[in-house]
Automatic annotation (TrEMBL):
Keywords: ATP-binding, Nucleotide-binding, Transport. PROSITE patterns: ABC_TRANSPORTER_2. This is ABC transporter ATP-binding protein. GO terms for molecular function: ATP binding; ATP hydrolysis activity; L-isoleucine transmembrane transporter activity; L-phenylalanine transmembrane transporter activity; L-valine transmembrane transporter activity. SUPFAM superfamilies: P-loop containing nucleoside triphosphate hydrolases. GO terms for biological process: D-alanine transmembrane transport; L-alanine transport; L-isoleucine import across plasma membrane; L-valine import across plasma membrane.
Length: 261
């Protein structure tokens, strides 16, 4: 089974970045997720595919703590985080971006990244007026470069193009010291040029940062991941390398039958 292939690939590498065992989530009578087993190595880049309602965002919500799973357990770098609060997971280096944009449109790019950095740093609850630290500012510069927004640092977020706003969301996830990022459809609504930019940005991220990317665009998903998990009706349907997934006729049927172009 493909899951065993994934597990054996990771043998001997120490603690996984993420380990999901039997993770399920009910919403009343609706089973949004069930029996999810996943192993993701540190630094690994994984794509999660699946048609609308397959459970992809719910999977992210259980990993980030936005919703707790109703069954199963989740480990992050060896530690059980199943019921930890969201901010505790963030403190441990877990980050996410949202399917629906969550940016403050009146801030500049630089201020947004700086605030994200403040938000994940130790003294975030300090009531004192924060001193603008050099290291935070240096990080804002290098992150805006990493997401191809060098020329936009002093622009307000509301004036950015849709593609640039999505790049900024990636920037916010990079603030602080992320070890693992969950990207929820970062390519949604992007032009072909912006998609190429996104692929470049993701492929150039520091190698120690692993991620899961939910993506409807197969071309993007297969070019930014080393391994692919395919979901259907709240379950893991199959897993494989991008080549295996691309050539799997069942995947084609479910995926292309899901109404995505
Ligand atoms: N907060 C919630 N309350 C009730 N049902 C929910 C909730 N969140 C998700 N669901 C349901 O769980 C199922 C999985 O939804 P989810 O958003 O995880 O799908 P998805 O794979 O991310 O889909 P999409 O590709 O449309 O983003 C759906 O049937 C959805 O209606
Ligand atoms: Mg979703």
């Amino acid at each position: 089974m493909a899951t065993n292939v994934a597990a054996s690939r990771l043998q001997g590498t120490g603690a996984n970045a993420l380990e999901l065992d039997g993770v399920g989530r009910q919403f009343g009578a609706l089973t949004a997720l069930s029996g999810i087993n996943m192993r993701i190595a540190p630094g690994e880049r994984r794509a999660v595919l699946g048609s609308n309602g397959a459970g992809k965002t719910t999977l992210f919500n259980t990993i980030t703590g936005d919703f707790h799973p109703t069954s199963g357990s989740i480990r992050f770098f060896g530690e059980d985080i199943t019921t930890l609060a969201v901010h505790e997971r963030i403190r441990r280096g877990l980050r996410r971006t949202y399917q629906i944009s969550q940016l403050f449109t009146n801030l500049t790019v630089r201020e947004s990244i700086y605030l994200a950095y403040r938000g994940v740093s130790r003294n975030r609850f300090s009531l004192l007026r924060p001193r603008v630290s050099d290291s935070a500012m240096a990080q804002a510069e290098s992150i805006s470069h990493a997401v191809h927004l060098d020329g936009e640092r002093d622009k307000t977020v509301g004036t950015l193009s849709h593609g640039q706003q999505r790049q900024l969301e990636i920037a916010l996830a990079l603030a602080g010291a992320p070890r693992f990022i969950l990207f929820d459809e970062p390519a949604a609504g992007l032009s072909p040029t912006e998609r190429r930019d996104l692929i470049e940005i993701l492929n150039a991220l520091p190698k120690h940062i692993g991620y899961i990317i939910i993506e409807h665009d197969l071309d993007v998903a297969l070019r930014v991941s080393e391994y692919v998990s395919m979901m259907h009706n709240g379950q893991l349907f199959t897993e494989g390398t991008p080549e295996e997934i691309e050539n799997d006729p069942r995947v084609q049927e479910i995926y292309l039958g899901g109404g995505h172009g």
